[in-house]
Amino acid sequence: MILHVDMDAFYASVEQLDNPHLKGRCVIVGGMTNRAVVATASYEARVYGVHSAMPMFEARRRCPRAVIVAPRMRRYKAVSDNIMAALEAFSPLVEPVSIDEAYVDISGCGRLYGPPEHIGNAVKEKIKEKFNLTCSVGIAPNKFLAKIASELKKPDGLTLITPEKAMDFIDTLPVGKVPGVGAVMARLLKRIGIRTLGEINRYPEKVLAENFGKAGRRLIELSKGLDHSRVVTERHHKSVSSEDTLEIDTGDRQLITQYILRQAQTVAGDLRKTGTRANTVTIKIKYSDFKQITRSITLLTPTQSSEIIYQRAVDLFKKISLHQRVRLVGVCASNLLPETMPVQMALLSQKQNSFSWEKIDKAIDTISFRFGKGAVQRASQIAPPEGVKLSQ
Fold first, then answer.
1. Per the confidence metrics, is the pTM higher than 0.85?
2. Higher per-residue pLDDT: 353 or 203
3. Of 37, 100, 258, 374, which sits 20 to 30 A from 169 (CA to CA)?
4. Could you count the other beta carbons within 10 Å of the beta carbon of residue 263?
5. Rounded to whole angstroms, how far apart are CA atoms 41 and 114?
6. In this predicted structure, what is the pLDDT of residue 234?
7. What confidence score (pLDDT) does residue 391 get?
8. Any catalytic annotation for residue 101?
9. How far apart are the C-alpha atoms of 301 and 277, rounded to whole Å?
10. What would the pLDDT profile of 321-338 be if each residue is shown by its tens digit?
């Protein structure tokens, strides 16, 4: 049996925990400008229709009395780490899947903690007692069903799907509730008469595979209650990214390049923290009409250097036509390898040899750790004194 723990309105709940004046009030965590989006909202705010990823201006319109709080990721991460450690008291097999949710394999834990439902309640009680926070818990024979079960009785709920009841549950489960089935796919399935996961079994597997590819084959497995994914205690990072929604839509390439520089530094810093190097650099641009494009390049040598990532991202940006103003820009590093893995050095291009740049980055990391972030910066990132204009 697998247990899925999902913290309730996690960011907002931590803010209410740290500031008693926010208890019972509508709290929205997110950027402070109207162009920002909602990271999460307390359940008091959700009554007004506020939800994650909603534009902040819309959240303000729906809930004008809400308290807007800027995210404190370091604080949320610290609380999350403590919660994950508490879960390990019930089972050594704990898989964090995000900052506020995790899977726990409780197979074989019955002798210590009793049947699955008792374990789920014990987890809820421990999190409430130790952190004064609530969570919703789903328990099922596999990860797929456990995740769905945790969403059925939010907040502060518990849902158990026993192996005997699993197929009955699947037969009536709306396909839109299946992880990975978006609105478009749900409409396509509905068009051919499939409204519940159980109805998948009425159609030949070949037809579903041909029409929906890998997603179709996955649905066939799930419709039979099959999910062989295991609880993995060590997760490997697939990509690292950083993006910003600009305060004002702009066509100023120089300004956008400054954002790319900061994002490249953030991405490279995360690569060094996770002990990985990237084979691919991607730039993401979203125009003012919300149309989005991405451009990628594969590196000759894997890197965790901010300079190399910045150079390659700028190379990609130069090839992008700014036919409209830009609303959002982002940089992503992917196809990651452990930094301990030997790599083939580039022979002809000194620019591709990122190891010298990595030494500089690591030296800056050491200085920043000792004297604070920003102790060492590029000259281009330091604003000139008032009244002084620097030539390009």
1. no
2. 203
3. 100
4. 24
5. 35
6. 67
7. 45
8. yes
9. 9
10. 888 999 999 999 998 888
For residue 344, what is the DSSP state?
Answer: P
pLDDT surpassing 70 at residue 386: no
The residue written with tokens 């102790």 in the block is 375
**Rounded distance, CA 7 to CA 241, Å?**
24
Residue 141: Cβ within 10 Å count? 19
Cβ density class 9-37: b for 16+ within 10 Å, e for less: bbbbbbbbeeeeebeebbbbbbbeeeebe
Task: Determine the average pLDDT of the residues in 188-194.
Answer: 82
The answer to whether residues 278 and 299 touch, using CB atoms and an 8 Å cutoff, is yes
Q: In 3-state terms, what secondary structure has residue 33?
A: coil
Instruction: Indicate the SS3 state at residue 202.
Output: helix
Express each pLDDT in 198-207 by its tens digit. Answer: 888 877 777 7
**DSSP string of 223-263?**
HTT---PPP-SSPPP-EEEEEEEEEEEE--HHHHHHHHHHH
pLDDT of residue 378: 59
Annotated catalytic residue: which of 15, 44, 95, 101?
A: 101
Nearest to 171 by CA among 138, 141, 201: 201
Alpha-carbon dihedral 216, 220, 221, 222, rounded to 10 degrees: 90
Strands (E), the chain: 2-7, 27-30, 38-41, 67-69, 94-98, 101-105, 135-140, 158-160, 239-250, 276-287, 292-303, 326-338
Burial zone of 202 (CB within 10 Å; 0-12 exposed, 13-18 middle, 19+ buried):
exposed
pLDDT of 135 higher than 80: yes
Local structure of 323: helix, strand or coil: coil
Q: How far is it, in rounded angstroms, from Cα 260 to Cα 333?
A: 13
pLDDT at position 112: 81
Distance of CA 70 to the CA centre of its chain: 18
Distance in angstroms (rounded) separating the CA atoms of residues 88 and 85: 5
